[in-house]
C-alpha cells in the first residue's frame, strides 16, 4: 500500500486520474485501465476517520467496459501533522546516525542543504532557538516548529534540499508542492508514482528521460521551465484538468532555434520575416483550393478528441476547401453566452488558451518577454488612447484545432478599425516568452475600438501569425455589437486576440488571474465568463482557499 499527498485549490485542478500501466523500458508504457476521482467530492464526506472505497478501472478503449477494481482510501491531514511529516522527511536527509534527532553538526549540514548561505553564528543561533528543551539536540517536533515559524518571519529554505532548485520566487504553496514531489519521486523505485501532469507524460517509458535530456527541455507548467519546455500544458477550465497541447517535437525544436537564441534573432533580421510572410501567403492560397479539402479528414484524425463536429453548423461534406472547414460556424446552442442580458459581465472572445493580467507590468513579468512590449506599441498611434494607460489586458491564443471565429466580449459601439501591417511570427508561447522578438508589437494586426457604457473603451486586437495571413471582420464602424456576437475570423493557422481595458475597468475572474500568475494558460470557450465591470458593481474577490488531503 502506498500513499500520495495532494494539495488542491478552490479554483484549481481537482480531478485526479489514477492510471494503471504495464511498464516498458524502451517503449511507451501500456495503459491497462484508469479511473477518475473528484477530490472536491471527498471533502464533502465525513473524513473524521479514513474513507475507503473500491473504484472501477475503465478500459482505455471503452469508457463502459471495466478491467477490474482498485481500492482507494483517503483522509484529511491536520496542518500540524503536515508540518511534522515534512520535518521528518527533511530531518532524514542529514540524520546520519538515524536516531531521529539532529546534532549541531547535522543541523548545520541541513541549513547548508537549504542553500540560504547563513553564517556559522546564525546557524548556531537557530539551533539554540529550535532546541526548546535545551538538551543539545533538535528532534522532529522542534524542527517542525522552527521551520513553520521561520517561513512566516524569515524563510530559511532557499533551495530544494533534494534537487537544489531555487525556491521562494513564486508562492509558498508551489514550493511545498515542489519539495513534496521531490521527496515522493526522488528515489524512482516506487510501485505507485505521482506527480505526472498529463496522461501522455505517464505513458512514456525509460527512454522518455533520455529524449527530454536530448531536447534540453522540461515537462512542467509555467515559467519554472518557461519557453524551454517542449510540452505546452494548459488548464482546462471545464474539466478542471491539465491537458497537453498537441505539437510536433520537430516544430518545437525549430521554433526554439529560431526564437530563443541570438543566432535565430540574426536569421530573423536577415530575411526570415519575409520568408514567413511568403510562406503564409502560399499556404493561404493552397488552403483555398478545392484540392485542399482532402486534408480535412487528416486534420480531424490529427486532433482526434479535440474537435467536436457535432457542434458544427454545416456537415463536413459541405466544405469545398480546407479554409471553409477551418472557419466553420458552430450551432447557436454550442456556445451559450453567460449572463447574456447583463452588460456588466464580460465574456471570453474565443475558444482559446487565455492569460489575464491586471496590468502590463504583470503581463511582462509572467508571460510576455519581448523587450519592447507596451500598450502603445501594441495599439499603434492611430488606435492608442490615454484611457488605456496602465490598463488591464487579456490574451486569447488560438491553436489550429480551435474554432477560429472570434466574438465580442462586451456590448457597445464599434468606433473604428485600424490595420497595422507587420510580420507573421508564430504566437506559440515559445516565441511569446522569448526576449529576442516582439511578437505582439511586430506582427500584422487589426485593432478595433469598442465604446461601452460598462467598461469604457475596449481595444480589440486581432493578431496574425505564421500561416495566418487573413484577418476578417464581419462588423463595420458604427455598428452596435452585443456581447457574444460574432466579430470576425482567422484563416488557416493559429493566432491571437488581445483585449485591452481601461485601468480599473474590469475585475477578471479569480481563477483566470490565479493561473496567469503561475504562467499557466487556461483553456476556455466562447461565452464563458471573463470578468465583471468594477465601475457598476461592488466586487470583493476572496482569496483562494487552500486545503490538503492525503
UniProtKB/TrEMBL annotation:
The record's catalysed reaction(s) read: a 1,2-diacyl-sn-glycero-3-phospho-L-serine + H(+) = a 1,2-diacyl-sn-glycero-3-phosphoethanolamine + CO2
Subcellular localization is given as:
Endomembrane system
The identity of this protein, by name, is: Phosphatidylserine decarboxylase proenzyme 2
User: What does the PTM comment state?
Assistant: Is synthesized initially as an inactive proenzyme. Formation of the active enzyme involves a self-maturation process in which the active site pyruvoyl group is generated from an internal serine residue via an autocatalytic post-translational modification. Two non-identical subunits are generated from the proenzyme in this reaction, and the pyruvate is formed at the N-terminus of the alpha chain, which is derived from the carboxyl end of the proenzyme.
| Residues annotated as catalytic | 351 (charge relay system), 407 (charge relay system), 495 (charge relay system), 495 (schiff-base intermediate with substrate)
The free-text cofactor remark is: Binds 1 pyruvoyl group covalently per subunit.
Question: Per the UniProt entry, what is one GO biological process?
Answer: phosphatidylethanolamine biosynthetic process
Q: Is Isomerase included in the keywords of this UniProt record?
A: no
Amino acid at each position: 500500500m502506498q500513499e500520495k499527498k495532494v494539495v488542491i485549490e478552490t479554483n484549481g485542478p481537482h480531478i485526479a486520474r489514477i492510471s494503471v500501466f504495464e511498464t516498458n523500458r524502451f517503449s511507451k508504457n501500456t495503459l491497462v485501465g484508469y479511473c477518475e476521482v473528484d477530490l472536491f467530492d471527498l471533502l464533502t464526506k465525513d473524513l473524521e476517520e479514513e474513507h475507503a472505497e473500491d473504484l472501477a478501472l475503465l478500459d482505455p478503449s471503452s469508457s463502459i467496459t471495466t478491467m477490474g477494481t482498485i481500492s482507494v482510501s483517503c483522509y484529511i491531514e491536520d496542518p500540524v501533522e503536515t508540518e511534522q511529516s515534512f520535518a521528518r522527511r527533511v530531518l532524514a536527509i542529514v540524520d546520519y546516525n538515524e536516531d531521529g534527532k539532529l546534532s549541531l553538526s547535522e543541523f548545520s549540514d541541513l541549513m547548508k542543504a537549504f542553500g540560504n548561505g547563513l553564517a556559522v553564528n546564525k546557524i548556531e543561533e537557530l539551533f539554540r532557538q529550535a532546541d526548546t528543551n535545551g538538551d543539545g539536540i533538535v528532534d522532529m517536533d522542534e524542527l517542525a516548529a522552527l521551520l513553520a515559524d521561520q517561513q512566516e518571519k524569515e524563510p530559511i529554505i532557499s533551495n530544494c534540499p533534494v534537487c537544489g532548485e531555487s525556491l521562494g520566487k513564486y508562492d509558498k504553496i508551489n514550493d511545498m508542492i515542489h519539495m513534496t514531489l521531490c521527496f515522493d519521486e526522488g528515489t524512482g523505485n516506487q510501485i505507485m508514482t505521482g506527480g505526472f501532469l498529463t496522461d501522455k507524460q505517464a505513458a512514456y517509458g525509460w527512454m522518455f528521460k533520455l529524449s527530454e535530456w536530448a531536447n534540453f527541455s522540461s515537462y512542467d507548467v509555467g515559467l519554472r521551465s518557461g519557453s524551454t519546455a517542449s510540452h505546452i500544458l494548459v488548464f482546462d477550465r471545464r474539466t478542471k484538468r491539465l491537458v497537453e497541447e498537441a505539437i510536433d517535437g520537430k516544430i518545437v525544436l525549430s521554433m526554439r532555434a529560431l526564437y530563443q537564441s541570438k543566432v535565430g534573432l540574426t536569421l530573423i533580421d536577415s530575411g526570415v520575416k519575409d520568408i514567413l510572410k511568403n510562406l503564409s501567403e502560399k499556404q493561404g492560397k493552397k488552403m483555398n483550393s478545392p484540392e485542399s479539402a482532402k486534408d480535412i479528414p487528416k486534420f480531424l484524425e490529427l486532433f482526434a478528441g479535440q474537435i467536436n463536429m457535432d457542434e458544427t453548423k454545416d456537415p463536413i461534406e459541405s466544405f469545398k476547401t480546407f479554409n471553409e472547414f477551418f472557419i466553420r460556424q458552430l450551432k447557436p446552442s454550442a456556445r451559450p453566452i453567460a449572463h447574456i442580458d447583463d452588460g456588466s459581465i464580460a465574456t471570453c472572445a474565443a475558444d482559446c488558451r487565455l492569460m489575464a493580467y491586471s496590468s502590463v507590468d504583470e503581463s511582462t513579468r509572467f508571460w510576455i518577454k519581448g523587450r519592447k512590449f507596451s500598450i502603445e506599441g501594441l495599439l499603434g498611434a492611430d488606435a492608442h488612447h490615454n484611457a488605456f494607460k496602465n490598463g488591464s489586458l487579456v490574451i486569447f491564443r488560438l491553436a489550429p484545432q480551435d474554432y477560429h471565429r472570434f466574438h465580442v466580449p462586451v456590448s457597445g459601439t464599434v468606433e473604428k478599425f485600424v490595420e497595422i501591417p507587420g510580420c507573421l511570427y508564430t504566437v506559440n508561447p515559445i516565441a511569446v516568452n522569448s526576449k529576442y522578438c516582439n511578437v505582439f508589437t511586430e506582427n500584422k494586426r487589426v485593432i478595433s475600438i469598442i465604446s461601452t457604457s460598462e467598461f469604457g473603451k475596449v481595444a480589440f486586437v486581432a493578431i496574425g501569425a505564421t500561416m495566418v495571413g487573413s484577418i476578417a471582420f464581419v462588423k463595420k464602424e458604427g455598428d452596435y455589437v452585443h456581447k457574444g456576437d460574432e466579430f470576425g475570423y482567422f484563416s488557416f493557422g493559429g493566432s491571437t486576440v488581445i483585449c485591452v481595458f481601461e485601468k480599473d475597468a474590469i475585475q477578471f475572474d479569480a481563477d483566470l488571474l490565479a493561473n496567469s500568475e503561475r504562467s499557466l494558460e487556461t483553456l476556455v470557450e466562447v461565452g464563458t465568463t471573463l470578468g465583471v465591470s468594477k465601475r457598476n458593481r461592488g466586487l470583493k474577490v476572496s482569496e483562494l482557499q487552500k486545503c490538503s488531503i492525503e
